[in-house]
Write a structure and sequence with these properties.
With 230 residues, this protein is of the alpha/beta class. The chain is 28% helix and 23% strand. The mean pLDDT is 95.
């Protein structure tokens, strides 16, 4: 049986959005972390959820929730793996040591509109993609607009000699929206990466790809959340 761990990292000292993990979000007292853990705990295909943090508020809320949720593990992360200067590769190499399942889904609290059914669908798609010779999966947002290179002084995604083609005739590019990455533990250990050499690009659109990265993102996310939750 193939098994899935979720790796959910938070850290203290957010620089762009103050206290973004557990700061009150709309009427949710423990903010984005509470929303994300609620979504993950409603999944059907996840076997383990690992909250990794050095943030006291995250650890306190996670520990209370873990006392009644068997799938949730709360692990205090070493400060050297939770600073703004931490090399992401060092964190990637740490992840397999705290996740017990054979495959790892990495997600973030800053993707508040990726729901439980979206995670389950991503997991199903991931296992299907393995049968098609992909070795991992990551969520992306498709960009098919006029993209200009200052150095090239031209469009970077034109497919023909037409100066201003129709947007649908431009080469699609893909922005990594950081909503989820899925790979086997073996990929983590062998490649020292959270994706393999041939990732399946799972396209998302609309607010599913929304990432809370700046203060104005937090404010806009609250407006979207209120709109879709009445």
């Amino acid at each position: 049986m193939e098994t899935i761990s979720v790796f959910l990292p938070t850290r203290k000292g957010s620089e762009r959005v103050l206290n973004k993990n557990t700061r009150k979000f709309c009427d949710v007292n423990n903010g984005l972390l509470e929303i994300k853990l609620d979504q993950l705990l409603k999944t059907e295909l996840v076997h383990e959820i690992v909250l990794s943090s050095n943030d006291d508020a995250s650890l306190e809320y996670g520990t209370k929730l873990a006392s009644r949720e068997n799938r949730l593990k709360v692990i205090e992360r070493p400060d050297e793996l939770a600073s703004s200067s931490t090399n992401l590769i060092d964190l990637v190499k740490y992840v397999p040591s705290i996740c017990n399942m054979s495959h790892i889904l990495w997600t973030h609290v800053t993707s508040p509109f990726v729901m439980s059914e979206d995670y389950d669908n991503a997991i199903k798609t991931y296992f299907q993609s393995l049968d098609e010779d992909y070795d991992s999966l990551m969520s992306v947002k498709t960009i098919q607009n006029f993209l200009w290179s200052k150095e090239k002084n031209d469009l970077i995604n034109r497919l023909t000699d037409i100066k201003w083609p129709r947007t649908q005739d431009l080469m699609p590019l893909y922005e990594i929206d950081s909503a989820f990455f899925i790979a086997s533990k073996n990929v983590y250990l062998k490649n020292e990466d959270r994706i393999g050499l041939k990732p399946f690009l799972m396209e998302q659109s609309g607010y599913k790809s929304f990432d809370v990265d700046w203060e104005h993102d937090f404010d806009l996310a609250e407006l979207i959340y209120k709109s879709i939750n009445g």
